[in-house]
TrEMBL record, chain A:
The keyword ATP-binding applies. It comes from Pedococcus bigeumensis. It comes from the Bacteria. SMART domains: AAA. Keywords: ATP-binding, Nucleotide-binding, Transport. Belongs to the ABC transporter superfamily. This is ABC transporter ATP-binding protein. InterPro entries: AAA+_ATPase, ABC_transporter-like_ATP-bd, P-loop_NTPase. Pfam families: ABC_tran (PF00005). Residues 3-233 form the ABC transporter domain. The keyword ATP-binding applies.
UniProtKB/TrEMBL annotation, chain B:
The chain crosses the membrane at residues 23-43, 55-75, 107-130, 136-160, 172-196, 346-366. Residues 7-183 form the ABC-2 type transporter transmembrane domain. Pfam families: ABC2_membrane (PF01061). Keywords: Membrane, Transmembrane, Transmembrane helix. It is found in: Membrane. This is ABC transporter permease. It is a multi-pass membrane protein. GO terms for molecular function: ABC-type transporter activity. One of its GO terms (cellular component) is membrane. PANTHER family: ABC TRANSPORTER PERMEASE (PTHR43471), HYPOTHETICAL MEMBRANE PROTEIN, CONSERVED (PTHR43471:SF12). The keyword Transcription regulation does not apply.
Length: 304, 383
């Protein structure tokens, strides 16, 4: 139940949306697709969701080709588009019943599945309200329920967290983790890096229609990846000169704070111990950027 | 394609239509308008000697057709690109529904609504039937043809909504197509009539020009007492009309419109199809033909006359010029409309064309809903 993408390319007229993207998403894992706006994430997901034919390259979803076997692929995937629209005149429950009917799920099973999913996305008390009255975040949650109605083994989520309040984001994270734990393949595109770092097992960074690198987000990566740390000290002058002497890349940020780039938690701890040993009075020493954020910024640096 | 899928989409479309409050209002306005027109038709044509059923029937059927050609395109003309704009089409395309399920489901829903509109005009047609002069069989046939024409209108709107990115564009194109079918065909027929009109030699049985030349009054004052007997004879001759005995067969040059070459434009018009399918029959009231105001009969007869074209045989004009001195009487006179209506109907041709266009439009719509999409037209979004 994996997703395999090999050298996929897609242009709209003379606009090249996806130049060359290759990636693999494994079952039981949450794979994040991160990249700046217009980097081709949504176009890639449209191709995975059997809506667009790639100009070049190959896509395999569970070994099936979305171009020649769209029906078989559709039965296996759940797609949640960015900016989910819904039938405003229908109630939340009716929206899900309609989608269930479109998947040829018998009515009694559709009703049970709808109640189950409304509980999962915490929309039970809005079940009989018109979809029009839902807020953006509630519509996103309905979109997630819609994508899950056919119990897909491959989930394609385009910006699922946008518009969600903090509690819903944490709940979304739990939903995604539990889906992965059930052995499903989950591919999420997002901008919100700090959250992805918590939920994703692997991150694929794309920019300008190309996949730049695949970053595993396990504890090893957190322990060794280059990250920024912020130091607040009562002795800013001695701190700056010490850092310069020891060739630690550092720069001053607002509020009298100093930011340093350190590779791995081990080195960060050693740096703090050294600073204390030489008598620099450190009052705060905190990571300022997640490792994923640093990797992302490094990979997409050429944009500036 | 499956009945289950078509039904799912049709149910979704109908539920949305019923929930948005505009449609009940439109239906009420529709019934009130038709009611008003029926009442006016009744008052205008109600005559103790004439039963007004035929006129009422013609007016109501035409009004229903005209009004539905204004309303029905709006049921489908924005249905696909409107859904695309709201981002709800792609979520259906990624399910197990086939493009045909979506196209036919939308078509079925729109057709159901237009048939509901048609059904609401039934009481007024029943009134026309009660007034008399029109048979129930006629009403059923016109309704059947109307229902099919409305399905074609729905399909054309649906096709345009899959062809353009913006709903405004597809609505305009659909109304333009309706205009082309109704007015374009009529104008086209009228204008091209000049192209098929030519001077031809024609055989006529009637009063020749020479007869009139021989019966010219002499250039004298009839009150003059000094006229010669020859002149008096000429004056007397000029005062008598031609008789049947004066009719001969002669040839003359005349301009003839060969409408049989361009008649096919007429039945493309939905009004001609509906009119020709079940025109009212002329009937005798107190021994006289009394057809009253029957536009459907006129259109039907007119199109069949156009299809038949000019008569190849000898043109019979004797009765037109001979006074009552001849043997011609009322029962010999044949109404040209009546004669034309005894010839083959033109509506099967028109309905065949419309149905073909409707099926073609539905096929285009289904094709355009196929995913995955290889070539995306400019300005179209998928989701």
């Amino acid at each position: 139940m994996s997703i395999e993408v090999q050298g996929v390319r897609r242009a709209f007229g003379d606009v090249l949306a996806v130049d060359s993207i290759s990636l693999t998403a494994e079952p039981g894992e949450v794979t994040a697709l991160i990249g700046p706006n217009g980097s081709g994430k949504t176009t890639l997901l449209l191709m995975l969701a059997t809506l667009l034919v790639p100009d070049q390259g190959q896509i395999r979803i569970d070994g099936l080709d979305p171009v020649s076997q769209p029906t078989e692929v559709r039965a296996r995937i759940g797609w949640m588009p960015d900016g989910f629209g819904t039938w405003d005149a229908l109630t939340v429950r009716e929206v899900l019943h309609t989608i269930a009917a479109a998947y040829r799920i018998p009515p009694d099973r559709a009703r049970a599945r709808t109640d189950e999913l409304l509980a999962t996305v915490h929309l039970e008390d809005l079940g009989d309200r018109r979809a029009r009255v839902l807020s953006r975040g509630q519509k996103q949650r309905l979109g997630l329920a819609r994508a899950l109605i056919n119990d897909p083994s491959v989930l394609l989520l385009d910006e699922p967290a946008s518009g969600l309040d903090p509690r819903s984001r944490i709940e979304l994270r739990d939903v995604l983790r539990s889906l992965a734990a059930q052995g499903k393949t989950v591919l999420v595109s997002s901008h919100i890096l700090t959250e992805l770092q918590e939920v994703a097992d692997r991150a694929i960074i794309v920019a300008r229609g190309r996949s730049l690198e695949t970053q595993s987000l396990d504890s090893d990566f957190v322990a060794t990846g280059v990250a920024s740390w912020r130091i607040d000290s009562l002795d800013p002058q001695p701190l700056a000169s010490w850092l310069e002497e020891h060739h630690v890349p550092a720069n001053r940020v607002g509020g009298g704070l100093t930011e340093v780039e350190v590779a791995g938690e081990e080195n960060a701890a050693r740096l703090l111990a050294d600073l204390v040993r030489v008598g620099i009075r450190v009052i705060a020493f905190t990571p300022s950027q997640g490792a994923l954020e640093s990797a992302y910024l490094a990979a997409t640096e050429d944009r500036r | 394609m499956s009945w289950h899928g078509v039904r799912t989409i049709a149910a979704l479309e109908l539920r949305q239509r019923i929930r948005t409050s505009r449609w009940p209002i439109v239906l009420v306005v529709w019934v009130v308008l038709i009611g008003l027109v029926t009442f006016l038709a009744y008052w205008a044509t109600n005559d103790p000697d004439l039963r007004s059923g035929e006129a009422m029937y013609d007016i109501v059927i035409f009004f229903v057709l005209g009004l539905s050609m204004l309303i029905v395109p709006s049921l489908t003309a924005t249905s696909v690109n409107g859904d695309r704009e709201h981002g709800v089409l792609a979520t259906l395309q990624t399910t197990l529904l086939s493009p045909w399920d979506i196209a036919l489901g939308k078509l079925l829903a729109a057709w159901t609504i237009s048939v509901a509109f048609l059904a609401s005009s039934l009481p007024f047609l029943a009134w026309a039937w009660v007034e008399g002069g029109i048979s129930a069989g006629h009403i059923v046939l016109s309704l059947l043809v109307l229902v099919l024409v409305l399905a074609v209108v729905c399909a054309i709107g649906l096709m345009f909504s899959t062809l353009t990115a913006r709903p405004v564009a597809s609505a305009v194109l659909t109304y333009l197509t309706m205009g082309a079918l109704v007015f374009g065909t009529t104008i086209g027929f009228g204008l091209s009539a000049f192209l098929v009109t030519q001077e031809e030699t024609q055989q006529v049985y009637g009063i020749p020009e020479s007869w009139y030349e021989q019966h010219q009054p002499p250039d004298v004052d009839p009150a003059d007492p000094n006229l010669t007997p020859e002149q008096l004879e000429e004056i007397k001759k000029a005062q008598t009309g031609p008789t049947r005995a004066d009719c001969t067969t002669f040839t003359r040059r005349a301009s003839v419109a060969h409408t049989e070459r361009i008649w096919w434009m007429l039945p493309l018009n939905p009004f001609v199809v509906v009119a020709d399918a079940a025109p009212s029959q002329p009937r005798k009231v107190n021994g006289y033909y009394a057809s009253g105001f029957t536009p459907m009969r006129w259109i039907s007869g007119g199109s069949r006359m156009a299809r038949n074209g000019p008569d190849d045989g000898v043109k019979q004009e004797c009765d037109n010029y001979v006074g009552d001195g001849g043997s011609g009487n009322e029962s010999d006179y044949v109404d040209p409309f009546d004669a034309a209506q005894r010839t083959a109907p033109v509506w099967p041709v028109g309905l065949g064309f419309l149905l073909l266009a409707g099926v073609g439009a539905a096929v285009v719509a289904g094709q355009r809903l196929r995913t995955p999409i290889r070539r995306l037209p400019n300005g179209t979004r998928i989701a």
